[in-house]
Design goal:
It catalyses: 2 R'C(R)SH + O2 = R'C(R)S-S(R)CR' + H2O2. This protein has 118 residues and is mainly α. The protein has a single domain, classed as Four Helix Bundle (Hemerythrin (Met), subunit A). It has helices at residues 10-26, 34-50, 54-66, 74-91, 101-108. The longest helix has 18 residues, at 74-91. It binds flavin-adenine dinucleotide. The site of flavin-adenine dinucleotide (FAD) has 22 residues, from helix 1, helix 3, helix 4 and helix 5.
Length: 118
């Protein structure tokens, strides 16, 4: 049985958060209503305010000021989030992800990798 981290480490928290966020935007509507767009903007803003790592949250707020969340289409939102994640990857010296919808959908929405759902 996997060891439970109490409280979760920065790495586990980050990985869990990105899993939720990329999956959530992968299923965002192609043509969202104004209400859906507003809710998504509020969600990302609140996440940057309450993310439970103070310097991660501060940077996420700063990055959202420079590049406000794009909610007009699913593609816009998926690419925006990918770029936000890449800013963190860059900061941590991790590999950058290719931010186009086809690659993102393959990873987060309809994987053809037979090992992915094991
Ligand atoms: P993760 O970066 O957690 O990525 C999980 C999976 O997402 C990867 O395996 C890959 O398949 C996929 N992926 C990678 N990049 C992308 C992308 N650009 N688009 C789509 N999919 C992608 N940690 C810090 O130490 N300092 C920080 O300042 C910091 N800020 C953060 C801010 C936010 C908003 C979040 C959610 C997390 C932050 N983290 C921060 C955590 C950090 O991003 C990682 O989650 C953590 O280091 C664990 O990394 P990982 O190697 O497990 O992969």
């Amino acid at each position: 049985k996997a060891k439970v981290e109490c409280p979760p480490s920065k790495s586990l928290l980050g990985d869990s958060s990105w899993n939720l966020l990329h999956s959530m935007v992968a299923w965002y509507p192609d043509r969202p209503t104004i209400e859906q767009q507003t809710k998504m903007k509020n969600f990302m803003e609140a996440l940057a305010m309450f993310y439970p790592c103070s310097y991660c949250a501060a940077d996420f707020q700063e990055n959202q000021k420079k590049s406000p969340v794009k909610t007009e289409t699913r593609e816009d939102l998926c690419i925006w989030l990918c770029e936000q994640h890449n800013l963190v990857n860059e900061k941590l010296g991790k590999k950058l992800f290719k931010c186009d919808l086809k690659t993102l959908d393959e990873r987060w929405r309809k994987s053809s990798d037979p090992d992915c759902n094991k």
